[in-house]
Design brief:
The protein is mostly helical. It has one domain. The chain has 6 helices and no strands. The longest helix has about 35 residues.
């Protein structure tokens, strides 16, 4: 769940940067998930997050009343974002397969594993930049009223993300994931 949250946060960050808003919580893209982890927005929670993001984008699109030129830039940004998301998913899948293959060797080639991870991070950074550029081109075509609409939508989204983060933090604490939970777990396992 934490990996999906980091990925969603990175996506929100990319959108925030492209829409010209500052997303202070996470301004850097996360590193690639470990080889055994899910890819971009993977798992049942990831699909739900993607659907929620698509719904937010559809609502925003309807509110903006775009002219023909802006509509072309919007569609380019959406297409770029989806294509790059799919490319990242495939890259993560290939990396997981490569790591699984490497783990079957008697002696791990940590240099090769590191090189594969570095390559994936570089590709991920390039794809994020392409997506950001497409969204910035769209955002820069908007008038002040439209930019206000985008800003309002982003601020609402950021508030939801913060609330979601607080709820997850609370759950982790209750289940031994946080400092309080870890201390409680340690005292419960100590023998008298």
């Amino acid at each position: 769940m934490g990996k999906q949250y980091r990925i969603l946060t990175a996506t929100a960050t990319a959108l925030a940067l492209t829409f010209g808003a500052a997303y202070a919580a996470t301004s850097d893209a996360p590193s690639a998930p470990p080889p055994s982890g899910p890819g971009m927005m993977g798992g049942p929670g990831g699909h739900r997050m993607e659907m929620g993001m698509q719904k937010q984008l559809d609502q925003l699109h309807g509110q903006l009343k775009l002219n023909a030129d802006q509509e072309k830039l919007w569609q380019t940004a959406i297409d770029t974002m989806k294509h790059n998301r799919d490319t990242m998913r495939e890259s993560h899948r290939q990396m997981r397969q490569q790591f699984e293959s490497m783990q079957n060797q008697p002696i791990l080639d940590l240099n090769a594993m590191h090189a594969a991870h570095q390559k994936l991070e570089q590709q991920q950074a390039q794809l994020h930049e392409e997506t950001s550029t497409a969204w910035l081109n769209f955002y820069n075509s908007l008038n002040d009223q439209q930019k206000t609409t985008v800003s309002t939508a982003l601020k609402k989204h950021f508030a939801m993300m913060r609330e979601h983060g607080h709820k997850m933090h609370e759950r982790w604490g209750k289940h031994g994931g946080g400092p309080d939970g870890a201390a409680a777990g340690a005292s419960a396992t100590a023998k008298p």
